[in-house]
């Protein structure tokens, strides 16, 4: 069975690693914050003290980490992935990172005799737990196909995007839409709340009408229940919108709605809601209108 090093045991990474263990893969885990591996160790994982130790015997490295700087630390540090990666190994990074970093990683992993796939995911925490994530993948297509079984141990679908960096680009484009949709939902709910509407009835209208969206289904009920437990944090949404802004600016693509959404999530971060679910943007509107959006 393929030996896997899994790096990053946050909201998404821990359940992804758990699904690999359930499919009887040999999994060695590493997380920068101690203690997050405890449950996985009870289910058969081994723990490593550094990325280098985790990857030295691994056939495949799977990483899902919070941002570019954290990925750089894990890959390029003195005891990082590149210091221990064995020739022929495949590194699959499912973080949401800049396409430029994905291309640099692909080049540097190749220089070590390995292969790199940028393979970010969509499906949020629930999809990670259920093993129903969608992978959008950039890199060598033959390598993607050779690891199809591994991908499908963690998800339901693999969409091949093209050369290195295209998976990362697709994820930023996707999350631009997510951020704009979420902001639009919450703004509409704020107008409805200020207008004195029954909020549960209004959310049902949204879900059943032309404004229906995945965000309405995921975040509408959370806001009604005043439940801001994290599926995908506000801080990570803001990070992705900043990456999307850098990408669109670099390509010369006007993106006014992206700019507005980014500003809204920046307001949420400044007001202290970064570690809550991105639906906590509702609190910003609640302060503005002087009433709650919950049911």
Automatic annotation (TrEMBL):
What is one process in the GO biological process aspect for this record?
organic acid catabolic process
Signal peptide range: 1-17
Name a GO molecular-function annotation: oxidoreductase activity
Q: Which residues carry out catalysis?
A: 171
3-hydroxyisobutyrate dehydrogenase-like NAD-binding domain residues are 165-285
One Pfam family per UniProt: NAD_binding_11
Domain 6-phosphogluconate dehydrogenase NADP-binding: residue ranges: 4-162
The question of whether Signal is a record keyword is answered with yes
Where does the source fall among the domains of life?
A: Bacteria
Specify whether NAD is a keyword of the entry.
yes
Q: Which UniProt keywords apply?
A: NAD, Oxidoreductase, Signal
Question: Its family?
Answer: Belongs to the HIBADH-related family.
**UniProt name for this protein:** NAD(P)-dependent oxidoreductase
Q: Which organism is it from?
A: Cohnella lubricantis
């Amino acid at each position: 069975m393929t030996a896997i090093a899994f790096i990053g045991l946050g909201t998404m990474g821990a359940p992804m690693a758990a699904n690999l263990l359930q499919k009887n893969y040999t999994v060695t885990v590493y997380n920068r914050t101690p203690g997050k591996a405890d449950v996985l160790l009870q289910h058969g994982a081994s723990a490593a003290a550094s990325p280098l130790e985790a990857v030295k015997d691994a056939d495949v490295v799977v990483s899902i980490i919070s941002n570019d700087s954290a990925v750089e630390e894990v890959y390029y540090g003195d005891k990082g992935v590149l210091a221990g990666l064995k020739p022929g190994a495949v590194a699959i990074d499912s973080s949401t990172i800049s396409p430029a970093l994905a291309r640099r990683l692909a080049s540097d992993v190749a220089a070590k005799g390995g292969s790199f796939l940028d393979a970010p995911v969509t499906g949020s925490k629930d999809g990670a737990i259920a093993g129903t994530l969608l992978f959008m993948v950039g890199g060598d297509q033959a390598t993607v196909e050779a690891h199809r079984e591994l991908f499908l141990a963690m998800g339901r679908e693999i969409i091949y995007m093209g050369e290195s960096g295209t998976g990362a680009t697709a994820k930023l484009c996707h999350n631009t839409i997510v951020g704009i949709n979420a902001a639009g939902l919450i703004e509409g709910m704020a107008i409805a709340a200020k207008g004195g509407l029954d909020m549960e009835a209004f959310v049902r209208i949204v879900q059943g009408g032309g404004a229906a969206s995945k965000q309405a289904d995921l975040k509408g009920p959370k806001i009604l229940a005043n439940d801001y437990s994290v599926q995908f944090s506000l801080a990570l949404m803001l990070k992705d919108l900043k990456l999307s802004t850098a990408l669109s600016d670099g390509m010369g693509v006007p993106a006014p709605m992206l700019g507005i959404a980014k500003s809204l999530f920046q307001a949420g971060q400044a007001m202290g809601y970064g570690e809550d679910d991105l639906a906590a943007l509702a609190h910003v509107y609640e302060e503005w209108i002087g009433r709650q959006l919950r049911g």
